Amino acid sequence: MSRDARWKTLLELLVERGRLDVEEAAAELEVSAATIRRDFDQLAEQQMLVRTRGGAVVHGVSYELPLRYKTARRASEKQRIARAVADLVAPGEAVGLTGGTTTTEVARALAVRPDLASGSPALTVVTNALNIANELAVRPQFKIVVTGGVARTSSYELVGPLADGVLGQITVDVAVLGVVAFDATHGAAAHDEAEAAINRLLCERAERVIVAADSSKLGQRAFARICAADAVGTLVTDAGADEATVRRFQDVGLEVLVV
C-alpha cells in the first residue's frame, strides 16, 4: 500500500472512530507499527491529527476531512451516482456544479460523454470549485465559468461576496449539489456556512436542482443548511439507501434514483 493510500485510510478510520492506536492501525493496514508511527508523526506535522501516547486522535472538535483525502471513500458508489447524474444533463444546457468528491466525479462523467464531445458549447459549466474548473478547462467544447471568491483549502471551493456577485448575474438549467448531509426534514447541509451560502445561491439560480449523495449522507444533519428538501427535484444515491429513507424523500416530492 502506498503512503498516500495509507494516509487516506488512516484519516478515514480516524474520522469514523475519533481515535486510533498504533498497534490497531498497523494490524488493519497490514504494515509495521513503525510505519504507522511515522505516518502519525507526519500527519500531525500537517495538523491533520493530534498525536497521543500510543496513537492519535481527531484534530479539533469539528472535523472536516480535506478533499484530497476523501477521494477513496465510497469511490465506486460515487462513480455510479455521477454517471446517473450526468445522464440527466442535456447537451447545450448550463450546469452548476458545487464542490465535493461526488460532484467532481459528475464533472468527469460529463467530460467523457460521447454526445458532449463537440458543440459550441456542448455544455456551459458554472462552478465555484477550482479542481472541477481545472479538470474541465482542457475540454474546448465546454464553456467554463468560475465564480470569484476566496478559496477554502479543505474543499477547493471559492466562497464569499465575490462569488455571490457572479452567481447573482447568471441562471443555470440545472444545479448539481454535493452535500455532507441530506435529510427529508432538515434539508441539505454543509459543514461550512460560507460554502452553504454559495450552494444555496446556485440552487436559487437553477431551473432544477439535483442532489448527488451517497447513502451515508442521507438522514444526516450538518451545521450549515443549504436548502429545504422540497427545493430539490431529484436525489441520486446508491443502493445502500434503505427503503424507509427513500420513502421519506419521496413523500416530500423528490424523485429518487437509486443506482
Task: Describe the 3D structure.
With 259 residues, the chain is of the alpha/beta class. 36% of the residues lie in helices and 24% in strands. It has a seven-stranded parallel β-sheet, sandwiched between helices. It has a three-stranded antiparallel β-sheet with strand order 1-3-2. Helix 2 crosses helix 3 and helix 5 packs parallel to helix 6.
Write the layout of secondary structure elements.
Elements: H1 3-17, E1 19-21, H2 22-29, H3 33-45, E2 49-52, E3 55-58, H4 75-86, E4 94-97, H5 101-111, E5 123-127, H6 130-136, E6 142-146, E7 150-151, E8 158-159, H7 161-167, E9 172-178, E10 181-183, E11 187-190, H8 193-204, E12 206-212, E13 224-227, E14 234-237, H9 243-251, E15 255-258
Parallel strand pairs: 4-5, 4-9, 5-6, 9-12, 12-14, 14-15
Antiparallel strand pairs: 1-3, 2-3, 7-8, 10-11, 11-13
Helix pairs in contact: 2-3, 4-5, 5-6
Distance separating the two termini: 30 Å
Order of helices and strands: HEHHEEHEHEHEEEHEEEHEEEHE
What is the helix content? 25-40%
Structural class, from helix and strand content?
A: alpha/beta
Mean pLDDT across all amino acids:
91
> How many separate helices?
9
**Taking strands numbered 1, 2, ... along the chain, how are they ordered across the largest sheet?**
6-5-4-9-12-14-15
Number of strands: 15
Strand content: 15-25%
- Sum up the overall morphology in one term: globular
Rg estimate, integer Å: 19 Å
